[in-house]
Amino acid sequence: MKVSVEIITGTFIDTEVNEDATVRELKEKIATEVQLSVSRLILMVGHEEERRMVMEDEDEMMLKDLGVREDSHIKHTFVC
């Protein structure tokens, strides 16, 4: 499935992930693009009024279990 990840700078990364991909797998794809360690990436999922951070202990959850679907828009930030 294709998802769009908005980087904190306002740049978008469109990437393909398997329907059963985990949060960690998506973070690995993003880490390659932005050249950061996976451990520094924080994803935010959900619609504006329901948006929440995906906690590190949720990295093995499937994206679909967090409501991520085809053409979902995910926000990304990172820790210093």
From TrEMBL:
The lineage of its organism: Eukaryota, Viridiplantae, Streptophyta, Embryophyta, Tracheophyta. CDD domains: Ubl_ubiquitin_like. PROSITE patterns: UBIQUITIN_2 (PS50053). This is Ubiquitin-like domain-containing protein. InterPro entries: Ubiquitin-like_dom, Ubiquitin-like_domsf. Residues 1-74 form the Ubiquitin-like domain. It comes from Eruca vesicaria subsp. sativa (Garden rocket).
